[in-house]
Amino acid sequence: MLSEEIFFWASVLLLTYTYVGYPSVMYAWAALRRRPRCQQGPQPTVSIVVVAHNEATRVAQRLENLLSLDFPRCQLEILFASDGSSDDTVERARAYEPKGIRVIAFNRRRGKPAVLNDIVPEAQGDVVVLADARQQFEPETLSALVAPFADPRVGAVSGELILNQTASGTSVGAGVGFYWRYEKFMRRSESQVDSTVGATGAIYAIRKDLFKPIPEDTIVDDVWLPVQIVRRGYRVVFEPNARAYDGASATSAEEFTRKVRTIAGNFQLFFREPWLLHPRRNRLWFQTVSHKGLRLLTPLLLLTAVCTNLLLLEEPIYRFALTGQACFYLAALVGHRLRNSRRKIPFFSFPYILCLLSCATLIAFFRFATGRQSVIWEKATVQG
After folding, report:
1. Virtual torsion, Cα 260, 377, 253, 305, nearest 10 deg
2. What separation, in Å, do the N-terminal and C-terminal C-alpha atoms of the chain show?
3. For residues 312 and 227, what is the distance between their CA atoms, to the nearest angstrom?
4. What is the CATH topology of the domain spanning 1-384?
5. What 3-state DSSP class applies to 241?
6. pLDDT (tens digit, 9 = 90+) per residue, 254-307?
7. Centroid of chain to Cα 332
8. Distance CA 4, CA 305 (A)
């Protein structure tokens, strides 16, 4: 029975550390040893790169948003790249060429990394901002995003993605919103200590001369590229005043599709970049293992906690523990039943989101291991 107890408590403690302990440690660390950051210096020239596929309904609104940014126009270049769009995305984007937008159309869809490899080296700015067609920036976002580059130690800056919650939002959307706020809390602490592990794909910037060609089958460029910059000795910081707005996932199917892709990308990252797990080669080893690595073990830890608990029911403490686990999964089941409801009950939606992410991790591992996760993003079309 001793081995069952060891496995039970190890799984419980690792789960607690991953989702409660590590964020608390980083918060305390940031409070005690916050690294100063210089934010005074000449404003750099900036190139915004937007890669889009079949975004005809959004392209006009997005380009208008970028043109309205509070940033000197003479120091700003906007590049809009169509990755093999089959609708009239390119035609609608070209209507903005007289306003200074540079439109590059690729006939064949290859995925975002391949497009970035072609576009970024041609950008004229000292800083390259990578963005998507779906989100909207605040007017002051660009100035806030590039300000940290006044510090020569900063190589990349991640902005803050704010998920809008509307009256018509679903329960799963509320759960996703809560989870994303929790994620940003950790990133802010990591940034204050040293660097974040990855960036927000919808809004992040890099020094152009630090860009490294991305392997074209890379699933998550917004993690791969920042860790390469960290490897070269630079910091990747989080700037909460640089804000982009997006809608939370409307259905569990949409969120599941997003997370499977992201998590498969994390499996790919660790497989291709084993130095990340080497404490002497990765100065962010503690953050990488705690923030990214242990989360990939969540399904295994949850399963171990349940199975070993069932073997230890002779003692009252383990009967109490099993009751607690049963309540958690019951709440997740209720959250599943309410997943597309407009009722927002965090007590049910957050356990459901955590279980959803665990299932996504299992699927992501299978897709990565079998090579079935494509670099090309496909929108969810099935309702959850």
Report:
1. 0
2. 41
3. 43
4. Spore Coat Polysaccharide Biosynthesis Protein SpsA; Chain A (3.90.550)
5. strand
6. 778 888 999 999 999 999 999 999 999 999 999 999 999 999 999 999 999 999
7. 23
8. 10
